[in-house]
Amino acid sequence: NSRGPVSLLKDSISFTEVSASGLFEGHDLLRRGFTSVKNELLPSHPLELTEKNFQLNQDKTNFATLRNIQGIHAPLKLQMEFRAVKQVQRLPFLHSSNMAMDILRGNDECIGFEDILNDPSQSEVMGEPHMMMEHKLGLL
């Protein structure tokens, strides 16, 4: 190679591996919590991705139907309302029921699995409030 040994070393090591936010950085337990092997696994069944994206697929179908029936303004208005409702959140360390989103989707009168077995008092989201707010605001 005519470029020399420095060029070979530069080409073989990517910049992200050496930088502070690369592969050699330790996992920050205070900000990100414990790592889970479950999050890194691939889906074990072909229907798992479909089940995971069920609400997104249902929203797309509803928007397409609404557009065919009422025109382009109806799904656009509903999407703007969804976006406005998603922006209004409680503090990151408090549980939010997202009642406004349930009302927009029409799920407020339905009793589902998460209504019975999703007890917020047993949630693992609770953390140190000051640290969570500083992380949300980008101070850390």
- Would you identify the regions where 5 or more consecutive residues have pLDDT less than 50? 6-11, 13-19
CA-atom Rg in angstroms: 23 Å
The number of helical segments is 10
Main beta-sheet strand count, sense and barrel state: none
How are helices and strands ordered from N to C? HHHHHHHHHH
Portion of residues within helices: 55-70%
| Assembly state of the chains shown | single chain
Tell me the span between the first and last alpha carbons. 45 Å
* Average pLDDT metric: 77
What structural class should be given to the helix and strand makeup? mainly alpha
What would the principal axes of the Cα set say about the shape? Answer: extended
Keywords: Chaperone
GO biological process, one term: proteasome assembly
Protein name: POMP protein
GO cellular component, one term: cytoplasm
Keywords:
10 helices; 140 residues; extended; mainly alpha
Blueprint (SSEs and pairs):
Layout: H1 5-12, H2 15-18, H3 29-32, H4 37-40, H5 46-52, H6 54-70, H7 73-87, H8 99-105, H9 113-117, H10 129-137
Helix pairs in contact: 6-7
Protein name: POMP protein
Keywords: Chaperone
Family: Belongs to the POMP/UMP1 family.
